[in-house]
Amino acid sequence: MVQKLNKILLIAFCLLGTTAFSQEEEEGVKPPQIKDYNNDSTFKNFARYRDDVAKAQVNALKNGGALLIRLKTNVNTITKLKNAGKVDLATQVERETFLNNKAIVRGFTNQFKFCPVYFFYSNVSDSVKHKNTTGIFLDTNLTVDPAIICTAGFYLIAEQGTLYSSSIGLTTEAEAVNAREKGTAFKDFAIVVKNRYFIQLHEPFPYFQKGYKMKTYGQYVKNFNDKLQIFYTKYKSYNPSPEIKQYIY
């Protein structure tokens, strides 16, 4: 299903006379472009703290945290197609996007047990970044339901997307606000986990799960859930120091 949507989008881009662009670009969030981190200050303590940050993140997620799933809208492409008189193609993109999102919601609702999970559309990404989450979450029919409230003080973001060799190491929240992630794509069609500022997490946190076939999407989610549980069980007694806590937000 993802492949079918990508083919339809490629046709749409060709008809519109534009190059392909990602959902992040559609929603105003620029994706990584190049690998350039040799002199990046966020890697100063990376080797020293990386493992402990991952341990603290998984504990925060399990104990009172939540996972927020970002769903694509392809709204800009759909609008451009309609404005160009390509109504049938716009309807196709709309339909396939909806079916993909339904499969993702069904997969996480049925198979993800590690922590509470919530769903939101990518056009409210900025609100999620700044913890303005009132009235943005979706029910299983992909309809915004103001009654769905997330009270978690800590949450991570997961989405179906592309993995990058990230240009960002470890950032405090003050640094993350203005951080610009760059990198080289090395794996497509994966469940990717990011922090609240949409910066990709690092190993050893189970920050991705490969898989894209919507018919078996629930199995990919289950595999991801199991990896989180195994990692948490191994380090559930970990108590982060102040040096580590500054990276957990």
Task: Give an account of the 3D structure.
By secondary structure, the chain is α/β, with parallel strands linked by helices. The chain has helices at 2-16, 23-26, 46-62, 75-83, 87-111, 125-129, 173-176, 217-235, 242-245, and strands spanning 66-71, 117-121, 155-166, 183-194, 208-210. It has a 5-stranded mixed β-sheet. Helix 1 (2-16) runs antiparallel to helix 5 (87-111), helix 3 (46-62) crosses helix 8 and helix 4 (75-83) packs antiparallel against helix 5 (87-111). The chain is globular and about 60 Å long. The two termini are 34 Å apart. The model is unreliable at 19-36 (pLDDT under 50).
Q: List unreliable stretches of 5+ residues.
A: 19-36
**Number of separate strands:** 5
Which sequence of SSEs, written as H and E, runs from N to C? HHHEHHEHEHEEHH
Helix count equals 9
